[in-house]
Amino acid sequence: VFFFSSRRRHTRSASVSWARRCVQETGINAEYMGIYFLTTGLKEMKLVYVEDCICGKVLKLIGKLVGAKLEEELIPKEQCHSKETKTKYPELPALFLTPEVVIYETTAIARHLARNSPLYKTSDEVHMAQIDSWMELFKSEVLGKAYPEVIFPILGHSEYTQKSYNEAMASFKGFLVRLKNVEGFLVGTALSIADLFAASLLSFPFALIIDEGMRKSFPKLAAWYTKIASDAAFVEFFGIPRFAKIVVKPILPPKEEAVHDEKKDAKGKKEEKKKETKKPKEGEEEEDDDTGAEKKERNPLDLLPPSSFNLDDFKREFLANKTPETRRAYLKEKFYSAFDAAGWALWFTEYDKAEGEGQVLFMTSNLSNGFLARVESMGRYGFGILGIFGEEPNLEIKGAYMWRGTEIPPFMIEHPSFEYYKKRKLDPKNPEDQKILEDFWCSEEESTIMGLRYRMGKYFRQPGHSFTLHDNCPF
């Protein structure tokens, strides 16, 4: 096992040359983007991180490139803020060198993992300082500002105000100007942990807000990201890079900004109290309280004619059946007769994979999980399940849904990934279409559906309650 000794005073190019010679002499094959990385002698450590977390993924990528032995502990997203998790792990991600010695913060963990690798260590202290600088800048400007104020609202994960959204977008675009002349790599002429960390954080912005026009304004930045994000090692953890055609807008409308005026607040409370005590006279309609406030934009689905089909009752009754047999019986005995085809529609979808997708199960689960996460807040307008089928390296993503309205709902049309799905409307009176619906909504894992093994599935149900069909499902 070779490693870069602190006593060696090589330049980066000399270090790479020395490493390449060692590789040639020993037959080790660990090439990545033209640079050879050797095992650094790191002892086995435990990395604890939240599922689907970008920071956890980039640390796993760095660990793989430097040959680190990492035991992993995955914390489910719904448990990351629990009291038990906070008590056991005050911060995540966390790298346990021993049960007593822990390193927190993504950038600190990345530096420790790569400390003896040319991904970070060089004889040029200025280069190392520049790597540190870029990582801290991306953590502050992208992870600290753009994600909570722009990316999370777009994904439907958090509320926002129009002012905070606009300010964060302007700040993010200003930060990109600092990257407009990047060529090759962020620091020097070789890949570093700064490139990996930066590209991982930009994966969502490039897919959602850095549209074609912006990429034309920053051609060197786009070329740099494409090169890093398209490499096989990066794709293994982050999937095929996606690029936005247009800027994706947040799902929900912005919340109204709070006005902190004590006099107005007191006056408002008095007026509100008067309205409560003042009752309309007999035969007189109550007035809508829209004075001095803009009406909130209503979802077009709320404007549809009333339907005789009650979605909440259906969900409660259907999910009260705990076995595939009782759920199938419920659909046959109650669902089809109660279904309102004038107010609802049934759909089958199939994902049109890009080259390289569907090869690894956990990456395919991340892809489908991310798709549902964006429309989770729209669950009150539908029901369904998105599943993964088949075998590696030819996995398929298919879904069966019930949505409000007779056409594809607006929130799916506006979904940035929905254009990659083939869609077909199902006929609730057609026995073949009924079988598709029953197979998707009622089957257990390892069943055969459409000739493929059913690997895992997740319900599209209601805000905050998209849940897995089986407790052992790794979504």
Describe the 3D structure.
This protein has 475 residues and is of the alpha+beta class. Helices cover 42% and strands 13% of the residues. It contains 17 helices and twelve strands. β8 and β9 form a beta hairpin. α2 runs antiparallel to α11, α5 packs parallel to α7 and α13 runs antiparallel to α14. The N terminus and C terminus are likely disordered.
Strand order of the largest sheet: 10-7-9-8-12-11
Q: Which residue ranges are poorly predicted, with pLDDT under 50 across at least 5 consecutive positions?
A: 1-41, 282-294, 462-475
By secondary-structure content and strand pairing, the structural class works out as alpha+beta
Largest sheet: 6 strands, antiparallel
Distance between the termini: 37 Å
This entry's quaternary arrangement is single chain
Average pLDDT for all residues: 81
The percent range for strand residues is 5-15%
Structure summary, number of beta strands: 12
Helical segment tally? 17
Keywords:
disordered C terminus; four-stranded mixed sheet; alpha+beta; 13% strand; 475 residues
